Amino acid sequence: MNSRTLNFIAACAGMLLFGVTLITLGAIAIDLANRFSLSEKESGELFSILPIGIIAGSFIFGPVIDKYGYKAILITACLSMFAGFQGIAWSEEVSWLKWSIFFFGLGGGIINGSTNALVADLSTTHKGANLSILGIFFGLGALGMPLLLGLLQGKFSWEFIVSSVGWLTLAIALFYSFLSFPKGKTASQETFPRKQLLSPLLLCIAFMLFFQSSLEAIINNWTTLYLEKRNIMDEQSAKYALSLHILGMVIMRLLMGTLFRNTAPLKLMLWCILLIYTGVLLMESADSSIATTGLFISGAGLAGGFPIMLGVAGEKFPSISGKAFSLIFVVSLVGNTLVNYMMGIVAEKYHISHLTTVSYIEASGMLILLGLIFFNIIKTYQNK
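RE: above sequence
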C-alpha cells in the first residue's frame, strides 16, 4: 500500500473521530447534568466551551501544516482528544470537566481542518469528490456514537463507553506515528499572505460556508423541538427523523465521490442548494412522513457545501492550503455559533416554526455567494 493511500486512510480515521467529537457531548448531556447536578443554564455554558475549542483548533492547524507538515499536528490533535475523552468520562469537578471539553474541541478542530487539507493536498484531481468520501466518515462517526451508547449503555456505564472510545484516539495517534506525511510548503512562505487570504474568491468561499455551517447547526440542534412543538411527531420519532437527515448527507457524499465524481463542482453545488430548498419546504408539512422525507433531502443538500467548496479552495490556493482552510473553518464555525444563538432568540421571541424561515434565508445566502464564486472564477480565468 503506497504512502498516498495510507495518508488517505489516516485522514478518514481522523474525520471519523471528529464526527464522534461533535456528537458525544450532546449524546451524554443528561448523564453529565445528573452527575454534576447542572441546571439548564450551566449545561448550556458547558456546551458553549466545545465550539470555542473547535474554533481555536481551526485557527491553529493551518499555519502549522503549511510550515511544518502534518505529522506532529495530527498526533497532537489525537492526544488532545484523548485527554478530553478521559476527562469527560472521569472528571469529578466541573472545572476539570470544562478543561476536558475545551481540549476535546481543540483536538477536534485541529483534526477536522488538517484531514481536509491533507486530502486536498493529496488529490491532484477530483479534490471535491475525494473530500466527499472523507466527509462520509464524519457522518459515520456522528451516527455511530449515539448507536454505540444505545447498544451498550445497558451493559456498561456511559463513563466506561466514552473512556473506551477515547482509547481509539490514542491508537490512531500511534498509527500516525508510523506514517510519512507531506512536509511543509516552503520555509520562506509569508506568515500572513494578505493578498491571497483576503482575495474575493476565498472570502466568498469562507462566507458561503458560514451559511452552510450555521444551517447545519440549526437543523441539527432545533429540529427535534420544531417537530415536537408543531405536533408533527414525538421526541423519539423526531430523533429518528434527524438521524435520517445525517443518513441523507452520508449517502449524497458517497454519490458525490463516485457517481457524480466528474460533475462540475459549481454545478453540483447548485443542485445541492436546490435540494436544501426542497427539503426545507417539505419540513413545513404537518405530515410526519413528508417532514421526515424533507429532513432526508435537506441532509443530502447539505452534503455538498464543505467538500465542494474546500475542493475549490484547495485547487485555487494550493501554496497556502493550510492557512486558507484555517480561515474558512474559523469563519464557518463563527457562523455556526452565532446563527445558532440567534435561532434561540427567534424561537423564544417569535416561534420555533421560524426554523424554516431562517433556513430559507441561509440557503439564499449560499445561493448568492455561489453566484459570486462563479463570477470570480470566470474573472480569474479571463485575466490569465
